[in-house]
Amino acid sequence: MAKTDTKQKVLNGLFWKILENGGAQGIQFVIAIILARLLTPAEYGVVGIIMIFITIANVVVQNGFSSALVQKSQADQRDFSSVCYFSLLTAGLLYGILYLAAPAIAEFYRLPALRDIVRVLAFVLFPGAVISVQTAYVSRKLEFRGLFLSTLAASFVSGAVSIWMAYRGFGVWAMVGQQVIYYYSLMLVLFLTVSWRPQLLFSLDRLGQMFSFGWKLLTASLIDTLFNNLYGLIMGKIYNEEVLGVYNRGDQFPKLIVNNLGAAIQSVLLPVFASRQDHPEQMKSMVRRAVRVSSFLVLPMLFGLCAVADTLVLSLLGEQWMACVPYLRIMCIAYSFWPIHITNLQAINAGGRSDVFLKLEVIKKAAGLAGLFAGIRFGPLVLVSIKAALDFFCTFVNAWPNKKLLGYGIGSQWMDILPSAGAAALMAAAVYGLGGLLPGGPWLKLTLQILSGAAVYVLLAALFRLDSFWYLINSIKERMGKESRT
Fold first, then answer.
1. Quick check: 137 and 80 in contact, CB under 8 A?
2. What pLDDT is attached to residue 185?
3. Are 412 and 367 in contact (CB under 8 A)?
4. I need a labelling partner for 157 at 20 to 30 A (CA). Which of 1, 113, 377, 469 fits?
């Protein structure tokens, strides 16, 4: 009974989390396409440079304590309120640093407009501090419905304003406005849809207890974010903002898939794994299922996206963005390894081993820095290709601790992934070949490629009786049967 209840909670949480990510990011995706036709790659690159600094600051504000709230076996109102106030204080300190550093950033990139953009965009740190606590509460309760409604509303409002600003000739400020309005509207709507409210409670002792777990995750997240954003910093400085804009646009499409499915799975896995941290065999079974199902869902989308990359960019963005196609394909390969990354890391976190998590980040980033500096001289495409190769290497690093902790090593994980990867590769090859044979314009070709790809993958999954395919089919039937009885 407990196993069935857990499964239903996980599936229900995934359902709303995928809807939340898919709905919000779907709206943002459409908005990004419209803005891409109104703005130039160079304008995208300018905002891309600033978002690097904002993203790093947001990691300090939002990470660590929010994960500690989810992982803690018993967290009450005093814990949540203490983290909220401390995060707001951190946001204030970081805003002051960014405000003072804005002229130096503008001078470093020789773009005077960056000074004011930094100072305005940095305001998102304050709602970000509150949102991190709100989402931690949602994750603990697996109540993602309110988060779904909130992100949908915030995405729609911020997107509508940004499109209006772009049409009115505001240029890069249209994207700045989108970010600021999104964060503030999301925070406000969450107060209406989520039952948690901050109270006049604060405890340094509670923060100290969570800090012992959270600081390692914060450090690991900060290392990861700094490293990943080095690519943007280097492209914006060594190359130019137009190259950065093209890279960001190519990265956006596969990241949309990973952030939707991958992040949804990640948000649900941590609290569920944490509830089974004292039962290694049960956790191993859940981790294995998560690896299989997430790979079954993510890999065909990324492989298929790689196959239709040129048609997709031409259809949605136009000729001026065709330079992003090779970046898009390389990043599809890089993100293909995320199901292994996410699941292994969440299992380690759920077991309270943030020390192991931090050690893994140090090892991966040391290797990554070596590859980064080796690739700079060969140009941006080689640089990004090295990143994809390093992401493959990191699958072995992330899986290594779980060989000992759960008895589930990288060899077993790859054996679980290979059936889905094989089916996805066959589907992508068929779709790519079909692209050269199909008549008509890019929109018609893209539609036919997507439909044929989906049909081929489902056919292969059923023909070869892939475990994850039938697991999902049976889970859907169970859910529909339960709803019909109620």
1. yes
2. 92
3. no
4. 113
